[in-house]
Amino acid sequence: MKICYKLMMLCLLLPAASCQKWLDLKPQNEQVSDAYWTNKAEVEAVLGAAYVKLQGAVKTMLVWGEGRGNTLSLGGYVDVDLLRLKSFSLLPTNNYAKWGEFYQIINYANMVIKYAPAVVEKDPAFNQATMASFLSEAYFLRALSYFYIVRSFGEAPLILEPYMDDQQAYELSKSSKAQLFDQIVQDLTVASNNGKEIWPTVWETKGRSTKWAIQALLADVYLWLGKYDEAIIACNTILQSGKYGLLQGTVNNKNNWFSIFNPGNSNEGIFEIQFDYTKNQTNKLMEIFGSNYNWIISNYCVSLFTENAEDIRGAGASYETVAYKLWKYLGAEGNTTIPRPYSDQNWIIYRMADIYLMKAEALIMKGESYYPQAVELITTIRSRASISRPLEAGSTELDILKALMDERAREFVGEGKRWFDLLRVAQRDQYKYKEYLIEQVLLGVSGASTPVIRSLLLNENAHYLPIHADELKYNKLLVQNPYYENLN
Fold it and tell me: Which of 287, 311, 442, 443 is most buried as measured by Cβ atoms within 10 A of its Cβ?
């Protein structure tokens, strides 16, 4: 795998002062060498570069987390690669099968982990506590990146050393899912020891790694691993912290709930990738959901909202009813036609509603005696959406899981979670609920293609992306996902 990580002249996303510092390397294309690491500012520059790369990965997070689910449909302009991803007919040349953005973040994190400790002795302004806090952020960012990779590819190279030199050989074979998940848990465990509770500003507290962001990610990882007691503990750490709450709304006023997305950084937000037009930080969400509208809300998802007409998250909030575009990323206010002036919405990875519903999922999987507690948590999310009708959850594990997944579909449409949710539930206990995954995916595709997609999804390897052809070309130790071996 040829991973060319060039540190360019990047605006520091997260310095303590003005956000106007620049990473000044000798020539622009020079790799960061051992001689670079002399003071706190240089460490913070590399850490800031990782967050900048995270900003650039938002479109990939959206496509990987939503594209193969059932809550979004293809809208206006759609490129061939996106169409192939949605129809589970990807080729190894598909642009959405590239993992380079996340390995760039991993590389920056690896640099900080390796070189930051030695800087303490070189710079009196860089004390042990600050260094440990920076390391916590690096471990979190590395874990988050691998979490996206393992859920999307299943197996991938596990790289724990920084790539510092173009002459350095970097051919590595894939590690297993178990190995990747083990490293993710290990990184988050280390990160939790020195994670900050708050930062000096709100945008830093929401946009940088904190103790609470680490616990949210751990809860998610533990759900994938079937470690339900650990997931509950992680959720409870946040629920009992007193730092966050659910934003309420009313049927006649959707704007309080809508403020989760505009202006963002609400009391509900735990970890949000930050964007600010005044600092030249923009994303492509208004293009993706607006001008090009690659994605619109699916008919199936609309039907979930219309089951409860009073749901404040439905029409006028999550979506508009003219072209069914996602209003949560386009609007300035809920239940209006006032558009956002700029494409600088934060991309929310974790917020408080997720914690309630992740805990509910863990409780469901612990057995029947825990179902009432799970229903209570789901009902809390429904009640804050102004839904008065009691939850009809059924009595079996699958029944109540379906009720939970329906609620997650309503709450998080377009937030990069739906496909991952379906896959997580399906693969549990040796793909106990594979048929549920297939049924759900088919609810979001056209009738003519359903027999073909059903047959594709029976193959579990088709649930993961192919390794891109470029990676196979440069790294001869990589082996293609067997589902895609004979495709090109």
Answer: 311
Q: What is the pLDDT of residue 169?
A: 58
Written as one letter, the residue type at 381 is: I
Compute the distance between CA of residue 44 and CA of residue 112 in angstroms, rounded to an integer.
Answer: 9
With H, G, I as helix, E, B as strand and everything else as coil, classify residue 9. Answer: coil
What span, in angstroms and rounded, lies between the C-alpha atoms of 6 and 100?
Answer: 12
CA triple 58-416-7, angle to 5 deg: 20
Instruction: Break the chain down into helix, strand, coil percent, rounded to 5.
Output: 50, 5, 40
Contact 434, 394 (CB under 8 A): no
**How far, in Å, CA of 32 to CA of 15, rounded?**
19
Q: Are 50 and 12 in contact (CB under 8 A)?
A: no
Residue 211 near residue 196, CB atoms below 8 Å: yes
Q: Find tokens 């006649």 and name the residue.
A: 252
Q: Label residue 379 exposed, middle or buried (CB < 10 Å: 0-12, 13-18, 19+).
A: middle
Separation in Å, CA 355 to CA 181, 239, 270, 417: 20, 8, 10, 13
CA atoms within 13 A on the CB side of 361: 29
pLDDT at residue 323, rounded to an integer: 94
Tally the C-alpha atoms within 13 A of residue 253's C-alpha that lie toward its C-beta.
6
pLDDT at residue 251, rounded to an integer: 61
pLDDT value at residue 256 = 86
- What pTM does this model have? 0.93
Is the bond preceding residue 339 a cis peptide, omega within 30 degrees? no
- Can you list the residues of the chain whose pLDDT is less than 50? 1-31
End-to-end CA distance of the chain: 18
Rounded Cα distance, 284 and 11, in Å: 19
